[in-house]
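Quarterly update from the structural biology core.
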Amino acid sequence: MRQNENKRMDKDENGLEDRVVAIKRVTKVVKGGRNMRFSALVVVGDKNGHVGAGLGKAAEIPEAIRKGKEDAEKHMISVARTDYNSITFDNLGKFGGAQVLLKRAPEGTGVISGGAARAVVELAGIRNIRTKSLGSNNKQNVVFATLAALKGLKTPEEVARLRGKSVDEIKA
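Predicted structure, tokenized:
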């Protein structure tokens, strides 16, 4: 069992961990028969506020995973978090037919989330959160909707600056 965990999640020299969310076999029918290829959805993060997701396609699974990891590293985002590793505000992310609702949670709640959204949230370093997947349950769309919700988060300092108020007025 320990060996399977290492295959699912790896750490590279940059301190980034990657998790394979989904591998699909894709078939294209051509004149000579069928072409089989693989598509891998990979989430990469440092568990310290940086996370990204990517899609890799290739004839072999390991190559698809490698390409997905490279794509995820290119599309990394920074996530605003609180002192107790939760999100700063509740937010809704949309991508395609999927919507993901992210809700703040107090210290000790843990990660209450489904599989695809859980991978993104855990690799971002968020330890207290509740999520709900609304609409489509397509893993790819759920991952990108979760990233869209995390990307839309602002710190209380940014919100106060935009509104022209102090941080204490915002938090009250």
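The first helix runs from residue 2 to 8.
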